[in-house]
Write a structure and sequence with these properties.
Blueprint (H helix, E strand, L loop, with lengths): L9 H27 L4 H26 L2 E3 L6 H14 L5 E5 L6 E4 L7 E5 H6 L2 H17 L1 H21 L11 H42 L2 H15 L4 H6 L27 H16 L3
Helix pairs in contact: 1-6, 1-7, 2-6, 3-5, 5-7, 5-8, 6-7, 7-8, 7-10, 8-10
EC number: 3.4.24.-
Family: Belongs to the peptidase M48B family.
Membrane topology: Multi-pass membrane protein
């Protein structure tokens, strides 16, 4: 975690370490399995390395492109920069770049491989709907993602799942040489890739849900106003249903990084969701509010 006034979250740190260890073990086993099965593992590694390089170094640009967002200066968005300046001073952390998306969908997200390369993006919808204390709570939430470095972990973890899906879809083309058992090899690789994808999907979803709880908690303690953050959650979740489906679908690539989920259709259950339920998040913020209200 970066050196800031955000309290270290041992629960989040341990979960990030465990998820990355399990994913690493999973993918080392998958590569060994590909080699044993006779698949052209060198080709797979080259392609995987290329994708990982691109996602690691350009994840911030890709996320901003997905939201059609652009960086804004203090002259262009003085109120937004003033809030971030104040929160960064309070948290004693470097100021990330600020971006703005001209979208009515009320949301915000943080991305970037390190605190020095981080960017926080807000939409027109969230700026129009939230009062200043509510917006401060949301931005404190996003800054905690940067400080805890869970954005970088989610970037890598999400990539590994995409890679498994790639092998599952195009595994036939990774086969090397002429092999009489090519069909059997393909089926084995294809099924193994699906299994790897499912496991990595569930691991990243579990981490994603916990990191939202951690960011809510850290943001609430930093501002000292958990009720403002709960109010922002209530407004955003309520207004999300009014956003056109096409706009929600366009935002799906950045879903795991959003402050609140841009849901499309009905949820298949908490196990598959990127975020905890709004009710659960508000309940935890109420507990923090009660703690802060107790005499010391």
């Amino acid at each position: 975690m970066a050196s800031t006034r955000f309290a270290p979250d041992r629960g989040l740190t341990s979960r990030m370490v465990i998820v990355m260890f399990l994913l690493g073990l999973l993918y080392v086993s998958a590569i060994v399995g590909l080699i044993v099965a006779g698949v052209n593992a060198a080709l797979v590694l080259v392609i995987a390395g290329g994708f990982l390089f691109a996602q690691w170094f350009f994840s911030d640009k890709l996320a901003l492109m997905a939201m059609r967002a652009r960086e804004v200066t203090a002259e262009e968005a003085p109120e937004l920069h003033a809030i971030v300046d104040r929160l960064c001073a309070l948290a004693d952390m470097p100021k990330p770049r600020i971006a703005y998306a001209d979208s009515d969908m009320p949301n915000a997200f943080a991305t970037g491989r390190s605190p020095k390369k981080a960017v926080i993006c807000v939409t027109r919808g969230i700026m129009q709907r939230l009062e200043t204390p509510e917006l401060e709570g949301v931005l404190a939430h996003e800054l905690s993602h940067v400080a805890h470095r869970d954005v970088a972990v989610m970037t890598v973890a999400s990539f590994l799942g995409v890679l498994a899906g790639l092998v599952a879809r195009w595994g036939l083309y990774f086969r090397g040489g002429n092999n009489n058992n090519a069909a059997i090899v393909f089926v084995v690789v294809w099924l193994a890739s699906i299994a790897v994808y499912v496991i990595s999907f569930l691991l990243t979803r579990a981490l994603s849900r916990y990191r939202e709880f951690a960011a809510d908690r850290a943001g609430a303690y930093l501002t000292g106003q958990p009720s403002a953050l709960a109010s922002a959650l209530t407004k955003i979740s309520g207004d999300m249903a009014q956003i056109p489906t096409k706009d929600l679908r366009r935002a799906q690539p950045a879903q795991a990084f959003f402050f609140a989920p841009a849901a499309v259709g009905k949820s298949l259950g908490n196990l598959l969701s990127t975020h905890p339920t709004t009710e659960a998040r508000i309940a935890r913020l109420a507990e923090i509010s009660a703690q802060l209200g107790r005499p010391t």
